[in-house]
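Lab notebook, bench 4. We co-purified these components, and the gel suggests they stay together. Before we commit to crystallization screens, I want a quick structural picture of the whole thing.
Request: model the full complex, all chains together.
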Amino acid sequence: MNETHPNPPVPAPENEPVYVPRADVRESAEGFTVVADMPGADEKSVEATVQNRVLTIEGWTKAEKPQGHEELGREFGAGRFRRDFTLPDAVDPDRIQARVKNGVLTVSIPKKDEVKARKIQVTG
Amino acid sequence: MYELTIGPRNPWTVFDELESIQADMNRILSGAEAPRFARRARPAYPPLNVWASADGLVIDAEMPGVDPQDVEVSAVGDELSLRGKVNAQEPAEGETVLRRERPAGEFQRTLQLPFRANTGAVKATFKNGILRISIPRSEEEKPRKIAIEAN
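Here is the predicted assembly.
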């Protein structure tokens, strides 16, 4: 699966930064799995869309500053995650599934039945 | 204007420890300017955000995909330790890894706190891949108002 260069991101609200989430991609006989880190995002703020063979994953997080505190240091930020993946021809876009858990988005992309490897019975 | 961060945000390192936060805390306590995190080539895992109030600190640790049961938070005196494992599971049989960017393995990070913690009152909650730890100062170290007795 190829990764397309990220499109110019849609302007995020309030000039939030846009991050490219770190992702793992695995392939099995059944299909592909994309796993992307979106810390702070939940099922309400994550979207996965497929259009013209491009899978786009997006998510939003908000900085949750504790009340009455002063910031001492910051090593990670909040904002928008966005990344595109170009899907191979051989997948079935209608059966893609996505779920979010512990700030990680997992997208399952099944292969079309006709391209799945099949064992051919050899008869004598 | 927005900032576009390309590539992995937090390249994985295993034993990369306590530097800038410590320095920044010391600087804040000595009354110098506000801390500014240097962009280091190899940031420690997990990345942390730190806030302070008169009562103590709140620390957020970014650890998506970590099972809360795999994390151990311990506070001893003026030291806070985080250790655990992340994404330690192997790919399933018959799976090929095409791309691997997410951190995987064991981690440990230790912070020197700018005060002794009330260790019994340290709390940690985990939500959407972010661990929030609140660390109150020990009672002895809280500023006290001294009443002046009239003679």
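The domain at 20-37+44-86+104-139 of chain B is CATH 2.60.40.790 (Immunoglobulin-like). Worth comparing against the SEC data before the next meeting. Confidence is low (pLDDT under 50) at residues 1-17 of chain B.
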